[in-house]
Amino acid sequence: MDKISLQDKFSLFSEQWSPKIIGEINDSMVKIAKLQGEFLWHAHENEDEMFYVYQGELTVKLRDRDLVLRAGECVIIPRGVEHMPVAREEAWVMMIEPKGTLNTGNAQSDRTVQEPDRL
Question: Which residues are within 8 A (CB) of 111 and not within 5 positions of it... i.e. 6 or more apart?
Answer without folding.
Answer: 17, 39, 40, 103, 104
